[in-house]
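This section describes the prediction task in plain terms. A model, or a person checking by hand, is given the sequence of a single protein chain and must write out its three-dimensional structure as a string of tokens. No templates, partner chains or ligands are provided. The sample shown here is typical of the held-out split.
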Amino acid sequence: MKARTLIALLGTVLPSAALAQMPMSHGGGVASVTPLYEMAKGWLTKSAEQMPEANYSFKPTPEIRSFGQIIGHVANSQYVFCAAVKGEENPSKADFEKTTAKADLVKALNDSFAYCDGAYQINDMKAMEEITLMGSMKGSRLWGLTLNLSHDFEHYGNVVTYMRLKGMVPPSSQQGGM
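The expected answer:
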């Protein structure tokens, strides 16, 4: 019995110890999430650019957002998350979910990413400072960046579905997408 327990324990501990010795390819802190942010940014902006304007009003079912409303929602949310991380008032007063023209939505999305770029350049000391999001959610600035990133990927998943339903290949599945 004791030998089995020791073997099981070593089987658990040794791989963990080996992983702990491996260098992280993107470092820690903000540097660890920035490449993922760049990936989400590329995929979302390419999706917005590639979807024909006629499909911006497309809704798979009547109860959910249209493709354009998703793009507008992402733009709105980016300003909310990144303003909190930067310690600023939200500079955008627009509600891009109500915008319908493709060119305006692509511009809004690109502008929101340009605004967020600065948030993903904070240093790791600042990244550990506490912020409040949406009135009551508290976490570090790095948490806010990660929340923004997970929100971007959540809605990229929606965008992928809409593109597939329209017979399109989403950017993450295109040649060189990953």
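For orientation: DSSP finds six helices and two strands in the chain.
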